[in-house]
Amino acid sequence: MVSKKIRPVSALSSALFSALLLCSVFSPTSQAELPNDTVPNVLTLPEAHPESWLYVQDMNFWGMTEGKVIILDIASNTRNYKGQVSTGFFGSFIPSTERNEMYSAETYYARGTRGARTDVLSVWDNATLSVKKEIELPHKKRAQTVSEKNATQLIDNDKYMLVFNFTPATSVSVIDMLEHKVLNDVDIPGCSLIYPSGKRGFSTLCADGSMLSIQLDEQGKVASETRVPSFFNVDEDPLFEKYARINNVGYFPTFHGYMQPVDLSGPVAKPQEKWDLLSASEREQNWRPGGWQIISGHPDGRVFVLMHKDGVNGSHKDGGTEVWVYDTKQHKKIKTIPLETHGISLEVTKGDEALLAVTNAKMMLDVYNPKSAKLERTLSIGGDNANPFTLTAVE
């Protein structure tokens, strides 16, 4: 058996190795000095948000005092989460189309879930996502419901904000957004929610199938009030309170699959002729609209409606398996978009290259190309703990 001898490293070789190692560690050319990090390092967003961005309101049912609105670029596969703002307990949200601001009507309690109540209207800066102003809503009666677009609306080129109140008596608070002060509360007994109409006013849906149209003066007082006679049967085929607005016409789907347009361009709402969303065969299969935010409109005249088959009385909140696209000028369906995952809410972006966002049953956002009907990406805003029921496109 032949043994191998290990050759010892000479003292000179060891010393040379150590010297080279020290040179490599301490040589000024071997390691560039890194710049100091700035803490905190805060980026800003563009003052005008792009048309591909979406405001996603998370009600946060698992911690309802901590609601929020998340700003997403739904056209991007990377870095699409742009930021978020807090909306407190059952907040309602709307972005301005005239100023680089966003607004949220919020409620807080002194001890989180109890204690003294404070209602505020927060003014958020588009670029920094910081609060520029808080306007206290003194009467503490803002409606606290699952997020609802028509609970907070802007009128008269965003000069006035309208906030829906429910105690259960219903009223609307009028806030001057230039002076940042509450002007008035307008009683709307038996009616709910806010649909801007005319130059400086709103209409509201009433329990008997009518509408109430109100115009305001510059002090936020009622200048005129008109009751629009009942134009739908609340027992046989009620309207969804969600609508799509295109060129000042509001498109309200009915529970049984009709479309009720209402002209809101003037001081008094004018219901127009109702038209059918379904063909004879589709009606035999009981296709119906359903979900939370079931309809969205594009400026080119298209409306997108979330639909489900085998509908019954009570299925109006069940969501849908398809999105049907209609031409509002021709009163006909022009496209069907099958959904890969059951949908609950939807919104279409308003640019030329529109995208369709659908909140799916897994509480994620599926983004479809309306032209090809293809699913382009799925975005998470917090997994199963998120509740992105209300989606608002940049306009």
From TrEMBL:
The answer to whether UniProt assigns keyword Oxidoreductase to this entry is yes
| Signal peptide start and end residues | 1-32
Q: What is its EC number?
A: 1.4.9.1
Keyword list (alphabetical) reads: Electron transport, Oxidoreductase, Periplasm, Signal, Transport
Q: Which top EC class applies here?
A: oxidoreductase
Main location per UniProt?
Answer: periplasm
Q: Where are the transmembrane segments?
A: none
Molecular functions (GO terms): methylamine dehydrogenase (amicyanin) activity
Transport listed as a keyword: yes
Classification via Pfam families: Me-amine-dh_H
Q: Where in the cell is it found?
A: Periplasm
Family (UniProt): Belongs to the aromatic amine dehydrogenase heavy chain family.
This one is known as Methylamine dehydrogenase heavy chain
Q: Which organism is it from?
A: Paraglaciecola agarilytica NO2
